[in-house]
């Protein structure tokens, strides 16, 4: 593997020291997104944060993000936080490294091109229609946790597009297992002190049971498909038929399990979270919501959108892109330097931990006007969009950009356009809005909203 070497310099980034005894470490760990944003605002584009037992360098400038994720990506491997995610996802695309990752990416990439994901639009529409039927039975202004509702819908969609099945009774098991896994991962992100996995804890035992429950479901579906020996056009069928170019072989059950688990969990959790924040923002900005309604009424006239309608819904897309700017589900990316390097004139030691945060960079005042404002109009005016490719990276960037980007955007567009035509969602007064920055950027207290039908 070739690594592009940069001559180290004597420059060291500014240092922020966090003390366990003074309590600032606990405050930082409790409010991670706010703490990172304040650290950037006070100390600049590159800053070393000294936690008890380790130092992590925050890189906020797009030039530095580009260096880590694209220009010298070979030198930056997934950090140990991903090793903990690998306890769930195995060696799927999110966690794999080196030749195994390249081989898997090359095999799977064609399945997620825009042309291929188009074939799942009708399946998405079918589940959206069924979901709307359940909302039609609700009492007017009945409060619901929209975070859970979006999770329910996206879980049904990924289960059908992934496996061609209705998860039915297993849905509750999957949701409960996912909540347990994310809670476990939250306390073991690189900005926290955690016990090793081999130290028995109640949380660790719950985590093990959650992974076992998901394994039972996924391996069971793979086994049933093997026995049936009937080609299917869902994602699992496409993965099972994919051949490696070098030797013509197929993925074994363990490889299939790892990729299925990666797509299945990431493919509905991140989408549901993105939609949840979008509904919140629309409730907080009625002027934006009115313009969204106007576009949907004009283009769709009450019917469910199709894949062909998506390019016409420019303002709808702008709303989604702006929501992803302010609340990117994949809010932080951690890497570890294989060898010493230089980023924007600052020395990075071999073995050093670095993080990039879309949550922070998406608010960089040198690249965004009104960085904290919810302003979809910026996406309709090219002069207001940053010229730097890595000023906006909700799906990551470089060779490891999210493989499901087109699938996710298609799904979010279809769901938002369908539901916003028929329903108005408003935040329940007094409901606390807080971030839970775990593996994804979830709302800490759910998102309690009332649902009322829009007059036609």
CATH architecture assignment name = Orthogonal Bundle
Lateral arrangement of strands in the main beta sheet: 1-2-3-9-6-4
- Total helix count? 16
Q: For the terminal residues, how far apart are their CA atoms?
A: 60 Å
CATH topology: Cytochrome p450
The CATH superfamily is known as: Cytochrome P450
Roughly what percent helix? 40-55%
Given the helix and strand composition, which structural class is it?
alpha+beta
What does the main sheet amount to?
A: 6 strands, mixed
What is the radius of gyration computed over CA atoms, rounded to a whole number of angstroms? 22 Å
Please give the domain count: 1
- Poorly predicted runs of 5 or more residues: 190-197
Mean pLDDT: 89
Encode the helix/strand succession as letters: EHHEEHEHHHHEHHHHHHHEEEEHHEEEE
Beta content comes to 5-15%
Number of strands: 13
What is the CATH class name?
Answer: Mainly Alpha
GO molecular function, one term: iron ion binding
InterPro entries: Cyt_P450, Cyt_P450_CS, Cyt_P450_E_grp-I, Cyt_P450_sf, Cytochrome_P450_Monoox
Keywords: Heme, Iron, Metal-binding, Monooxygenase, Oxidoreductase
Protein name: Cytochrome P450
């Amino acid at each position: 593997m070739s690594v592009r070497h940069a001559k180290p310099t004597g420059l060291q980034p500014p240092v922020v020291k966090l003390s366990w005894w003074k309590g600032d470490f606990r405050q930082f760990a409790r409010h991670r997104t706010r703490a990172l944003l304040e650290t950037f605002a006070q100390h600049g584009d590159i800053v070393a944060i000294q936690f008890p037992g380790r130092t992590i360098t925050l890189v906020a400038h797009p030039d530095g993000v580009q260096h880590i994720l694209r220009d010298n990506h070979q030198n930056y491997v997934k950090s140990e936080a991903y090793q903990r995610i690998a306890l769930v996802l195995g060696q799927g695309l999110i966690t794999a490294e080196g030749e195994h990752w390249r081989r898997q990416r090359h095999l799977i990439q064609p399945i997620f091109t825009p042309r291929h994901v188009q074939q799942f639009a009708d399946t998405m529409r079918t589940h959206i229609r069924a979901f709307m039927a359940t909302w039609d039975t609700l009492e007017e202004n009945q409060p619901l946790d929209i975070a859970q509702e979006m999770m329910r819908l996206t879980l049904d969609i990924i289960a059908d597009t992934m496996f061609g099945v209705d998860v039915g009774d297993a849905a509750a098991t999957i949701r409960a297992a996912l909540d347990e896994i994310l809670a476990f991962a939250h306390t073991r992100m690189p900005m926290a002190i955690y016990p090793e996995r081999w130290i028995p804890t109640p949380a660790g035992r719950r985590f093990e049971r959650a992974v076992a429950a998901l394994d039972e479901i996924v391996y069971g579906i793979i086994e049933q498909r093997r026995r049936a020996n009937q080609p299917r056009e869902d994602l699992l069928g496409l993965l099972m038929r994919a051949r490696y170019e070098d030797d013509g072989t197929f993925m074994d059950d363990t490889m299939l399990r790892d990729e299925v688990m990666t797509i299945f969990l990431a493919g509905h959790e991140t989408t549901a979270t993105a939609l949840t924040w979008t509904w919140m923002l629309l409730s907080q900005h009625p002027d934006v919501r009115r313009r969204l309604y106007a576009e949907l009424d004009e283009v769709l006239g009450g019917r469910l959108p199709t894949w062909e309608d998506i390019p016409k819904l420019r303002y709808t897309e702008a709303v989604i892109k702006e929501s992803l700017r302010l609340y990117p589900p994949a809010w932080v990316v951690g890497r570890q330097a294989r060898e010493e390097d230089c980023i924007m004139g600052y020395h990075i030691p071999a073995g050093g931990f670095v993080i990039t945060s879309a949550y922070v960079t998406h608010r960089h005042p040198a690249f965004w006007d009104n960085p904290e404002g919810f302003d979809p109009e910026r996406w309709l005016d090219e002069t207001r969009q940053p010229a730097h490719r890595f000023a906006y990276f909700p799906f990551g960037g470089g060779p490891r950009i999210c493989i499901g980007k087109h699938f996710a955007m298609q799904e979010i567009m279809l769901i938002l356009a369908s539901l916003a035509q028929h329903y108005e969602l408003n935040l329940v007064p007094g409901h606390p809005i807080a971030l839970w920055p775990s593996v994804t950027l979830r709302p800490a207290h759910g998102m309690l909203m009332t649902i009322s039908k829009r007059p036609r």
